[in-house]
Amino acid sequence: MLETREDEIHSTKKIFFFNREYISEFVYGGIDGAITTFAVVAGATGAGLESSVVVILGFANLIADGFSMSIGNFFSSKAQKDNYKKNKALEYWEIEHLREREIEEVRDIYEKKGFKGELLDQVVEVIISNKEVWVDTMMKEELGMIDDEKTPVSSATMTFFSFLAIGFIPILAYVFQSWFQIATENLFFYSSILTGVGLAIVGYFKSMVTGKSKVIGIVETLLLGGIAAALSYVVGNVLKKAFM
Question: Is 71 helix (H, G, I), strand (E, B) or coil?
Fold first, then answer.
């Protein structure tokens, strides 16, 4: 059972249409998209605004916040990659110009891991015999840095896509109402149900990132979304009474 769980977490197979390595971006964008858009819906409903206004505010939030979030993700990912490259170049320089000190650092690292005597000498010799392996070892063991194979563009794109895809769900009922002129009495109820489904999907994927129970992942995500919606609804209702 434990091995199955571990295989699931570390698997590189695709889930539906995207790679597992992008689950964190999907969850990151999806949760924010669903919660912020539903918060707009809840606030507008609490303020008694018309469904057309809810749609306009919802789409404005989707585009503006989704783009802003993806740009932030892009620059964050790029900064991490640039920092990794800078430190990697520095390690190459240190190996070339401060070779003996770097050898001692390798020895200290593996000595702290429990290697001793001849075995320690062999490990150090193997590592320093290959410059790429040596630098990679120093990056991981000394600096605690691992290069992310995902590009900033791909990470930002997945974040933006998930924000739009999941964030659209809360306003789906209002869009249908505008298109087909259906009754407006229960729109917020329908939106709440649909948003719950969207958050449950994101919570399911979140459990794949965290390794937690899928039930716990779903419940945590639904709870977070419910709290945000409740706060927005109350604020909208209070502001309506105060200014309208």
Answer: helix
Strands 18-19, 14-15: pairing kind: antiparallel
Distant-in-sequence, close-in-space partners of 108: CB < 8 Å, separation ≥ 6: none
pLDDT truncated to tens, each residue of the chain (244 aa)?
A: 444 444 444 444 555 555 667 788 888 888 888 888 888 888 887 777 888 888 888 899 889 989 998 999 899 889 989 999 999 999 999 988 988 898 888 888 888 888 888 898 888 899 888 899 889 988 888 888 888 778 889 889 999 998 999 999 989 888 888 777 666 678 888 888 888 888 888 888 877 777 777 888 788 878 877 777 677 777 766 766 666 5
- Measure Cα distances from 239 to 11, 61, 170, 191, 233 in Å: 49, 20, 22, 22, 10
- Alpha carbon distance 196, 35 (integer Å): 10
Name the burial class of residue 12, with classes exposed (0-12), middle (13-18) and buried (19+) by CB atoms within 10 angstroms of its CB.
Answer: exposed
HEC letters along 217-229: HHHHHHHHHHHHH
Distance between CA atoms of 195 and 187, rounded to whole angstroms?
12
Which residues 6+ apart lie within 8 Å of 197 measured at CB?
A: 169
Residue written as token pair 């605690």:
144
**In sequence order, what are the beta bridge partners of 18?**
15
- In angstroms, what CA-CA distances link 237 with 69, 150, 173, 234? 28, 43, 21, 5
